Amino acid sequence: MSKLSTPHLLGIKDITTSDIELIFKTADNFKDVINRPIKKVPSLRDITIANLFFESSTRTRISFELAEKRLSADVINFSSASSSVKKGETLIDTVNNILAMKVDMVVMRHPAPGAAHFLSKNVNAKIVNAGDGTHEHPTQALLDAYSIRQKFGKVKGKKVAIVGDILHSRVAISNIYCLKKLGAEVMVCGPTTLIPKYINALGVKVENNLRKALEWCDVANMLRIQLERQDIKYFPSLREYTMQFGLNRALLDSLKKEITIMHPGPINRGVEITSDVADSKQSIILEQVENGVAIRMAVLYLLAGRQEEN
Amino acid sequence: MKQRLLLDSTQIDLAITRLCYQLIEVHNDFSNSVLIGIQPRGIHLAQRIHKKLSDVIKKKEILCGNLDITFYRDDFRQKELIPSSTQVSFDIENKNVILIDDVLYSGRTVRAALDAMLALGRPRDVELVVLIDRRLSRNVPIQAKYVGKTVDSIASEKVKVEWKESEGKDSVVLLTEK
Q: Residue B6 is part of a domain; what is its CATH number?
């Protein structure tokens, strides 16, 4: 159990439960490192990592960059807005050109689902998926599960409700895979139009009533409405969505128990969650961000340290 | 595999006792000195030394920590490295640090430990205690100030240190291939 089963991190679907546990165990060590006065270790000093972001991102990009720098890797950043992608270069060409400059690993976010898998089959570098369209966002799922583990001591047996735009959310899909692998119970909650048709195949419960979902769960993971991915109208108005599925203080206080609130960010305050909930003691949103760096350090460390079989 | 016993449990205990008295000669009451065991195998020796020192000098508390050096090693990617935890709950700034490991072989572990330790602060002085010194096999210019037993061995041989806490018995064995 000292090595990942895969040379890339493309999605939670492709990794094993013991991979996840190994990543968590390694992240514990890195969490310790990043809380020291000197937050850096020299492990990846001979590795160069390219961060390719074909889609906008704040948290994930900064988190990955910090993780890379704290492992002493050399980092190059790329965002599609200011690149030759605009001139018509293909993904494989872009990446191969970057790799020709001796880059060892690629962290990529891309609007097309499956982009990371496609790249891993076509280029010779270790690929870390930082979100591919509506498909997967593995490091987010890992840090979410890690935050639950930190809060409760374990993930197994915990009840997690994922609320919001499930249909367009890579965070939801990766979270479902990750939490199920770790033995948690998962429920998705949202308007029927935003629940994927085949969600039952993933072995999760479906609930259309937010109050019922919250009464059931230990942890509620609130997701943003991804208007940029919604090509048609899925609900009458944001205001109506907020009234049905927005989490506010009054609703939270009327529950019989205290539940933990998570949010992968970016938060649309006043839509899926009100400020007094997002900033309350029950919310572990900023812990999630802190854990994100440790989780990404663990993933990069384990992938870079993996020996290839000859 | 041929086995030769280098130290049995009585001899290990004697060696630890001697090391402790040598440490007391230099560090007196340990008011400005701390013990740090190198993970994963040095911590048992560190705990033994800590216990014995506490028995002998009866001071309320001698500080003792564990240091993980995995992320500082220079053989990353050459073998599987599993990190352990670092537990140093005290400040090492301006302290006399006594690093403790079971076997001193190539010296690379200690080199990494020096790096790892400097990430925690700047000690005034650093010393090294080892139970076994394989003196003919050093790769880097590092040597221990306090040595339990010096062993002359060749590269194909292995020194195995077992502890009651992890293997159920105390012993040091030299393994020779044949």
A: 3.40.50.2020
